[in-house]
Amino acid sequence: MPQQKADYADDTEINAELDELPDDETVEETVANLAERGFDVLVVDDADEALETVTDQIPDEASVMNGHSTTLEEIGFDEFLSEGDHEWESLPDQIWSIDDDAERQAARRDSQTADYFLGGINAVAQTGELVAADLSGSRIGAYPFAAGNVVIVTGINKIVPTLSDAFDRLESVAYPLENERAQEAYGAESAIAKQLVYRRETEEGRTTVVLVREQLGY
Q1: How many CB atoms are located within 10 Å of the residue 110 CB?
Q2: pTM to 2 decimals?
């Protein structure tokens, strides 16, 4: 059974002011600014609609990879990719069936060029920038260029006023929660080792941001 955010969130101190649900006007302005920066944006009401919307983006026969994302777990995408009724090539299933460590690591690197790479984000600036980080880079490595298409799913609780606030959210909300999760899952601390600021998508139609009107992920 995958970890649930509730397994570790209650014991983690975060800046709750940077994890609140914004009003409709703020969401609308964020959508407009994301679109101006070249992102396709879809707004959905809840996790069920998010899963339906995400799966509708991916054509049959596409190779599909996902970076670790609590949000994807919460909407049910990870389970659907592994066990659902689809005609995709599930790269995670292939990767984790490899016994040899070196071969598995090579396959993980190759998966960054999937037809569709799905994941989350740690903060969305109202001004239209996306901010994310992780320890190894495997979650965000495909976003800038490698993957053919990118689908980013995020709760609107990650919307903050400015890019500076987005960095603050990364440090004071996302990292403490991820660090606690990593210790629960792997017995080791995480770190903000590799950070991405996604200021603009220059390839039309390549990156879709699905905003969910719920408090999801971190």
Answers
A1: 15
A2: 0.94
